[in-house]
Amino acid sequence: MKGNILVSLVIGTLLVFGGLFFAANSYAWGFNICNIFPNLPQCQEPSPTPSPSPSPSPEPEECDEGYVLVEDECVPEEQPSPSPEPVVETQGQPAPTAPVCPDGNTTNVVANLHVLRAGSDATVNFFITEGNNASIFYSVVGQPHWQYAVADVKPNADNFVSYTIHDLDPNLGYDFGAQQRFGCGGGQTTGVVVDGPVTQLFNLTYWE
To answer: What Rg value do the Cα atoms of the chain yield, rounded?
Structure first.
């Protein structure tokens, strides 16, 4: 009895190993066991694993005017800062004032004022009694004083002034004035000589 069991075990073992050997080498011998037993696990086709497809990149959106696209977001566009207006420092600076002449006005009048008229020329003569220069004025007789002027006329060493005015109208009479001055100062009185369109010496007519 024991011998039959042992023989059965040996035969079963040989069948198992033989079956395995047959299955393992069936492809090599050109025999496909799946044609006979299609439901065997080794006969099942593996399901293909789908390859991941890249996600399409979103199209960049357009921003409204005044905005720019930064990392897929519309942000306000930076505006340049305005240049600061220059600041003029005025603190501590004195307000501008009109120039003031340091020289005073003369109070005396010129001496021996007379005018020698000769056609289109007239020579104004006088002595300075105060100051260091004189102003000579003239205008056509009957016109407002004064149409013309000659400033800063210097005397000679004897304080005598003799100044000739040219290009006068020989057919008209003229008023001539003389005012002595000191530096940039003025005078309080002007001597006036009224002449006519003739060659003649004209003396002082009045003061003003």
So the answer is: 65
CA nearest to 144, candidates 203, 208, 199 = 208
47 backbone dihedrals φ, ψ, rounded to 5°: -70, 130
Residue 23 lies in a domain: yes
Number of domains in the chain: 2
| Same domain, yes or no: 118 and 203 | yes
What is the reported pTM? Answer: 0.53
Query: Which stretches of the chain are assigned E, i.e. beta strand?
Result: 67-70, 73-76, 111-118, 121-127, 133-140, 148-153, 160-165, 174-181, 191-194, 200-203, 206-207
CATH code at position 150 = 2.60.40.10
pLDDT digits over 139-178, tens only? 999 999 899 999 999 999 999 999 999 999 999 999 999 9
Indicate whether 48 belongs to any domain.
Answer: no
State phi, psi for 160 to the nearest 5 degrees: -100, 140
Domain, as residue range, for 17: 2-42
**How confident is the model over 125-143, as pLDDT tens digits?**
999 999 999 999 999 999 9
